[in-house]
């Protein structure tokens, strides 16, 4: 007689057990599944032969997996008669607890020993499932599972309540099934919504794949039409372009196929969980629902928590430019290329105006744009944004000028009005280029020195440290003689009060005895 069978051994069920992925296998098949048993008390990972999902067998072994009480009915087979094993169960003897076909029901009522037994009719699958033999406690094989321990979240028998569950809150399964069944229904509703969303996304992925292929075919037609005007060189160039296009199409399709496979697997897992849960809630008895509630809830919650994109992972943007210079092919300059995409992370900055400048003086630097392979773009038109922000004066606005040279380079010029430290950001398509952001130091502008040299003023005063320059500044530093017959010369930092001359290793002043030269220095200005 044909009936429900194990998907692993294709034999009739022998003590089917439910895996965390909601697939069932015979207990002997489970014991042969995967690597040898690990150390005692440790969970053992195995691959489900139905869905290839990695699941963990309990530390206590296969026997700790919940029994799959609905394995037979889920396969579409009706419960059989326990007496003749030939017909489908149509009733149940409430006294004996056995399932009976219609013939055995009549015979059961006619026999002397069983004539007084009460036989009830089975109306549907759920009644048939409930009519099965009661589920017995694995710890107390003679006791039926009639109670539910809320603390341990599992069905228990009367002896369990009197034993290790004595202090735990327990209630009859009929009293708690509504609350736990409602929780499963909420998870089921959420899973069904995810299924609808996944089906919509898969439809979009298929449409996008069609659009990518359609666009690729259109670009291929453009490339072929453009290449017909040339002889051998253009034909080779055309083949090269088609190869690039094919690679791009394959790259996009591979990404879409990968996304589709991931979405399909998630949808398949959700559909399996939903179908199992629907069948459990529709056909399972109270105890059967409570027995499998934990693993079902865990599986559905895990599937519902998996993140996935609700849009295709790539778009159909593939552009061909027939006027783009493509270099040399067989000694001929050829045109036409699949447009490069600028990579801001590979774009570089060059020039003297990157890190220092002078107040009110025009300065600048150059931006060189490159594609994802590091090659120069060779064309302009990119969205370049440049900002200058004063570190101390936030309201100080500096507006640079960006000039597109049309060859992949951009000249950025600026004229700072305020000295100080600036933070400079250079972005292409909203992303920073190499080296951005960076700091720019703007120094004070050069001023024409008014009056005599400071050191000459200092020397003429007889070496007084408090001598003042014609610009109003005083000589910094300590007394350091320079050997020219005056004392207190501050290390020959000439004009340092005006910021006009750097340190010199040679003394720029003249001895006090040389009156003519001293007079000449008094009249010299920058």
Describe the fold and architecture.
Belongs to the TRIM/RBCC family. It is an enzyme of class 2 (transferase). Keywords: Coiled coil, Metal-binding, Repeat, Zinc, Zinc-finger. One of its GO terms (molecular function) is zinc ion binding. This is RING-type E3 ubiquitin transferase. The strands form 7 sheets. Strands 14, 16, 17, 20, 21 and 22 form a 6-stranded mixed beta sheet that branches. It contains 10 helices and 22 strands. Among the domains are: 70 residues, Herpes Virus-1 (2-Layer Sandwich), CATH 3.30.40.10; 43 residues, no CATH class; 130 residues, no CATH class; 104 residues, Immunoglobulin-like. A hairpin with a 4-residue loop joins strand 18 and strand 19. The chain is 33% helix and 18% strand. It is an alpha+beta fold. The chain is elongated, with a radius of gyration of 44 Å.
